[in-house]
Amino acid sequence: MKIKTILITLVLGFSILATACPSRVNIGKILANPSKYSQKEVVIAGRVTNSFGIAMLGGIYQIDDGTGSIWVLTNRGVPSKGAEVGLKGRVQEGMSYSGRSYGLGVVEQERKVR
User: Fold this and answer.
1) pLDDT at position 16, please?
2) pLDDT tens-digit profile of 37-59?
3) Domain boundaries, the chain
4) Which end of the chain is more exposed for a tag (fewer CB within 10 A), N or C?
5) At the fourth CATH level, which superfamily is domain 23-113?
């Protein structure tokens, strides 16, 4: 009886954790259907193709994963051009930085650079 209760608790715990984490999506899918991803958390990865910002004060950078490219707004320093980046963030339409509109983009929450 105790083993059955423990197993049920473990299965429920893993189910909750699995639904809480956003899944990785390619940029092409976000660009093809922005309303589906608007205000949703996503995980994306790609190579930095462009970046603007002030060291340690934030900025905006563009990443390309081979299916498309998208702008990423950050409140940390921007990664350098050519860096491989994986990130979690929230998709946002009508994104702007420093008075310039970038349209559809992702507001960075977490980032790993390789």
Assistant:
1) 46
2) 999 999 999 999 999 987 677 89
3) 23-113
4) N
5) Nucleic acid-binding proteins (2.40.50.140)
